[in-house]
């Protein structure tokens, strides 16, 4: 039981750190926490099942937009609750209509989902309410946001750890290995996938809701930026999507690299990111952690 | 009003059908689900506009250059990027699908980034043969008609080649049973490369014809890919006639929604159709049950 104790200690240290850092560093830490939470939540469903969801930003943006619409009329905890419920309802709808079909349909549907939600919200705002942008005025400091995000990180990783040890994790792994075999061994395919997908998407929606006060001004084009979906997938894959700490290991270096690239090469960084993504798929198909394990194993073999 | 929707819908559907035909060739023959397909389409559209504006080259001549250039690019892309993935996935079901989706997802951002750097994020269009022509009492811009004719010629000649020629027979053999095609002396790798390159060529011709009559920007690739994917699934994956029919159907539906309700809802309509078809007939409207 050393590992959970170590994780809790690390969490405590991370919770105290913002009391001693500058505003810029705190901003970086919020960004890192956001992407660790996104990548971990994404891997919760996609890591074991191999169902690649490209819709991260559809849920993330929905969370942010819910806060933008409701922040003046409801107390903050209720707003967050609403965001979670809307995210869960959307995930159920998407899951029910696509998860019973072959995996490829799921990928294709999630690929366009962000674009669909963005266009629908834009259409609604322009034709019904007559305004496009909205403002978020909440009495939250950067530290509050960081602590909430850290809590989401802890929930996402804690949930993954719990699921990995439970029957659900076993079922998800079986589905990822071979869906036909999984069905024949009595796993309720649709229900298992739907449950894990809804859990993952709800967490992603909450990340968007918690992150949104940082923007102040929100419009569909800003919150449904496809780069978020892209980064989430590449981070989880780089670290190793089927491992508990994989998304974290992938998210932190990539987030820092992304920050550095977007400051120094604002025009060409999508090209770098795309090339890096391709490199990850080719060189480290199972992620850094699996790569390290292989390296360790081969070193041991060469010693003996 | 109904006639207007019909004529404009069919003209739009022609482009969609050609785009879907290219994607269904890539997926059916090379077994690669190409998420960067729309970016290839846009790249061709930008090249046509660039040639028209800077060199004054007529779009009709440009298309004759862009089609073969697309074929070469697709062939190169397959050899460099897709072939290693195919080799790695040997024997593992579903591995190539996941890998190709991820790799082309990366390619999407590379191509989009290149286009943003070269052409900027602004909307682009050219005015070329922009005069109305009377078609069954409906006034249609001449450039749209020409684009439609190009799509029709390219699409139909391919359909005839696939159905009648020995080369088409080989392509169809690989699409149907890639496992047993080598038994009769077919080089599956070569045919896959041809299929992928042919798909890229069709995407380029489709994109170039879009550029003749439509405004577009470097960020529109996802929408093109999405529409082509939906048409392919509606028509039954790998089914050429199905892709053509579903392409025209989608063009009609979109034009109908845009004229009767709101242009902002066309993508929502596309998605609704996608879901209805998936739930009702997962194998596609023209596909056979596997």
Automatic annotation (TrEMBL), chain A:
<feature type="transmembrane region" description="Helical">
    <location>
        <begin position="52"/>
        <end position="70"/>
    </location>
</feature>
<keyword id="KW-0472">Membrane</keyword>
<keyword id="KW-0812">Transmembrane</keyword>
<dbReference type="InterPro" id="IPR001851">
    <property type="entry name" value="ABC_transp_permease"/>
</dbReference>
<keyword id="KW-1133">Transmembrane helix</keyword>
<keyword id="KW-1003">Cell membrane</keyword>
<feature type="transmembrane region" description="Helical">
    <location>
        <begin position="245"/>
        <end position="263"/>
    </location>
</feature>
<feature type="transmembrane region" description="Helical">
    <location>
        <begin position="103"/>
        <end position="125"/>
    </location>
</feature>
<feature type="transmembrane region" description="Helical">
    <location>
        <begin position="194"/>
        <end position="215"/>
    </location>
</feature>
<feature type="transmembrane region" description="Helical">
    <location>
        <begin position="145"/>
        <end position="163"/>
    </location>
</feature>
<protein>
    <submittedName>
        <fullName>Branched-chain amino acid ABC transporter permease</fullName>
    </submittedName>
</protein>
<feature type="transmembrane region" description="Helical">
    <location>
        <begin position="221"/>
        <end position="238"/>
    </location>
</feature>
<dbReference type="Pfam" id="PF02653">
    <property type="entry name" value="BPD_transp_2"/>
</dbReference>
<dbReference type="InterPro" id="IPR043428">
    <property type="entry name" value="LivM-like"/>
</dbReference>
<feature type="transmembrane region" description="Helical">
    <location>
        <begin position="269"/>
        <end position="292"/>
    </location>
</feature>
<feature type="transmembrane region" description="Helical">
    <location>
        <begin position="76"/>
        <end position="96"/>
    </location>
</feature>
<feature type="transmembrane region" description="Helical">
    <location>
        <begin position="25"/>
        <end position="45"/>
    </location>
</feature>
From TrEMBL, chain B:
<feature type="transmembrane region" description="Helical">
    <location>
        <begin position="169"/>
        <end position="188"/>
    </location>
</feature>
<feature type="transmembrane region" description="Helical">
    <location>
        <begin position="256"/>
        <end position="280"/>
    </location>
</feature>
<keyword id="KW-1003">Cell membrane</keyword>
<feature type="transmembrane region" description="Helical">
    <location>
        <begin position="60"/>
        <end position="80"/>
    </location>
</feature>
<dbReference type="Pfam" id="PF02653">
    <property type="entry name" value="BPD_transp_2"/>
</dbReference>
<dbReference type="InterPro" id="IPR001851">
    <property type="entry name" value="ABC_transp_permease"/>
</dbReference>
<keyword id="KW-0813">Transport</keyword>
<feature type="transmembrane region" description="Helical">
    <location>
        <begin position="141"/>
        <end position="162"/>
    </location>
</feature>
<keyword id="KW-0812">Transmembrane</keyword>
<keyword id="KW-0472">Membrane</keyword>
<feature type="transmembrane region" description="Helical">
    <location>
        <begin position="35"/>
        <end position="54"/>
    </location>
</feature>
<feature type="transmembrane region" description="Helical">
    <location>
        <begin position="194"/>
        <end position="216"/>
    </location>
</feature>
<protein>
    <submittedName>
        <fullName>Branched-chain amino acid ABC transporter permease</fullName>
    </submittedName>
</protein>
<comment type="similarity">
    <text>Belongs to the binding-protein-dependent transport system permease family. LivHM subfamily.</text>
</comment>
<feature type="transmembrane region" description="Helical">
    <location>
        <begin position="101"/>
        <end position="121"/>
    </location>
</feature>
<feature type="transmembrane region" description="Helical">
    <location>
        <begin position="6"/>
        <end position="23"/>
    </location>
</feature>
<feature type="transmembrane region" description="Helical">
    <location>
        <begin position="228"/>
        <end position="250"/>
    </location>
</feature>
<keyword id="KW-0029">Amino-acid transport</keyword>
<dbReference type="InterPro" id="IPR052157">
    <property type="entry name" value="BCAA_transport_permease"/>
</dbReference>
<keyword id="KW-1133">Transmembrane helix</keyword>
């Amino acid at each position: 039981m050393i590992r959970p104790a170590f994780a809790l200690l690390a969490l405590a240290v991370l919770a105290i750190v913002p009391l001693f850092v500058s505003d810029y560093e705190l901003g970086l830490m919020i960004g890192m926490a956001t992407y660790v939470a996104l990548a971990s939540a994404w891997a919760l469903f996609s890591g074991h099942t191999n169902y690649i969801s490209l819709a991260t930003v559809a849920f993330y943006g929905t969370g942010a937009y819910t806060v933008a619409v409701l922040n003046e009329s409801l107390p903050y905890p209720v707003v967050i609750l609403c965001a979670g419920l809307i995210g869960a309802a959307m995930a159920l709808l998407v899951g029910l209509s696509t998860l019973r079909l072959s995996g490829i349909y799921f990928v294709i549907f999630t690929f366009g989902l962000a674009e669909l939600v963005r266009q629908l919200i834009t259409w609604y705002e322009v034709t019904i309410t007559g305004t496009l942008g909205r403002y978020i005025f909440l009495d939250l400091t950067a530290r509050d946001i960081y602590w909430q995000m850290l809590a989401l990180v802890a929930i996402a990783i804690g949930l993954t750890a719990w699921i990995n040890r439970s029957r659900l994790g076993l079922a998800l792994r079986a589905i990822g290995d071979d869906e036909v075999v999984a069905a024949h061994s009595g796993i309720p395919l649709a229900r298992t996938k739907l449950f894990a997908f809804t859990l993952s998407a709800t967490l992603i929606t909450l990340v968007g809701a918690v992150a949104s006060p940082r923007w102040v001004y929100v419009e569909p084009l800003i919150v449904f930026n496809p780069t978020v979906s892209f980064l989430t997938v590449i981070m989880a894959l780089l670290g190793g999507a089927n491992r508990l700490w994989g998304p974290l290991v992938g998210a932190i270096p990539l987030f820092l690299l992304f920050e550095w690239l977007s400051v120094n090469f604002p025009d060409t960084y999508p090209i770098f990111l795309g090339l890096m993504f391709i490199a990850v798929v080719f060189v480290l198909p199972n992620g850094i952690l699996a790569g390290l394990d292989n390296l360790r194993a081969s070193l041991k073999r060469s010693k003996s | 009003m109904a006639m207007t929707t019909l004529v404009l819908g069919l003209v739009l559907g022609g482009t969609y059908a050609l785009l879907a035909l290219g994607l269904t060739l890539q997926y059916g023959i090379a077994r690669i689900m190409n998420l960067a397909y729309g970016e290839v389409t846009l790249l061709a559209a930008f090249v046509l506009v660039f040639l028209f504006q800077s060199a004054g080259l007529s779009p009709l001549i440009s298309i004759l250059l862009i089609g073969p250039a697309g074929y070469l690019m697709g062939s190169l892309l397959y050899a460099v990027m897709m072939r290693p993935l195919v080799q790695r996935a040997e024997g593992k079901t579903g591995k190539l699908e996941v890998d190709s989706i991820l790799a082309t997802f990366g390619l999407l951002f590379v191509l989009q980034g290149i286009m943003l750097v070269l052409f900027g994020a602004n909307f682009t269009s050219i005015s070329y043969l922009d005069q109305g022509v009377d078609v069954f009492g409906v006034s249609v811009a001449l450039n749209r008609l020409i684009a439609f004719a190009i799509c029709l010629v390219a699409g139909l000649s391919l359909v005839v080649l696939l159905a009648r020629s020995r080369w088409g027979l080989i392509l169809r053999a690989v699409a149907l049973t890639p496992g047993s095609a080598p038994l009769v002396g077919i080089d599956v790798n070569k045919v896959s490369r041809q299929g992928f390159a042919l798909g890229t060529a069709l995407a380029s011709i489709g994109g170039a014809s879009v550029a003749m009559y439509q405004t577009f920007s470097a960020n529109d690739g996802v929408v093109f890919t999405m529409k082509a994917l939906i048409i392919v699934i509606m028509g039954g994956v790998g089914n050429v006639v199905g892709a053509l029919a579903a392409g025209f159907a989608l063009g009609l539906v979109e034009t109908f929604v845009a004229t009767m309700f709101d242009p902002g809802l066309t993508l929502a309509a596309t998605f609704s159709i996608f879901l209805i078809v998936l739930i009702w007939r997962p194998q596609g409207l023209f596909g056979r049950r596997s």
